[in-house]
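=== How it folds ===
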Amino acid sequence: QSDGLEPGVNTEAFVIEGDGVNSVIFNGGIYNNGSISAQAVSHNLAATNAAEAASNATALIIGNGVDVPTLRNDGSIIGQTVGPAGGAGIGVLIEEGGNLPTLTNNSSISGLSLTNDDTDLANITAYAIWDRSGTLLNIDNKGLITANATETTVGSTAVAIDVSAATAPVTITN
């Protein structure tokens, strides 16, 4: 669990990245039966000398140079940001150069971006699963995959599954 208590501070709970030279390989994949959680805030309630600023929260990052054949989630994965300045809440992010071909969800994966300021914020973004690598080709969902973002006057983005970078057919079983 990663909790950011100051505005403008991005939080990441579980980050796996290569070093640019060596790869990180999880031969058996990743299994989650607990909670992987990141929370960020854009308000200054706990940091009164800091200005309000957008903050991002990402629960699980499969980074560049990382090869994970499968992710099985039997617990919860949640990225959440709250407060008046917005930000992005992301559950699972597969970055360019990462590899995660199969994801099985038997419980809950969520991205949340919530604000009480509905005037002109454009940076209210939530993704439950965001594949920027183009490698996520199989999703088996028997649980909940949700993205929630406060609607603002200039719009917001809430995407449960983004596999738009895929260069091959994607199979989603729900």
Remarks:
- The two ends are 28 Å apart (CA to CA).
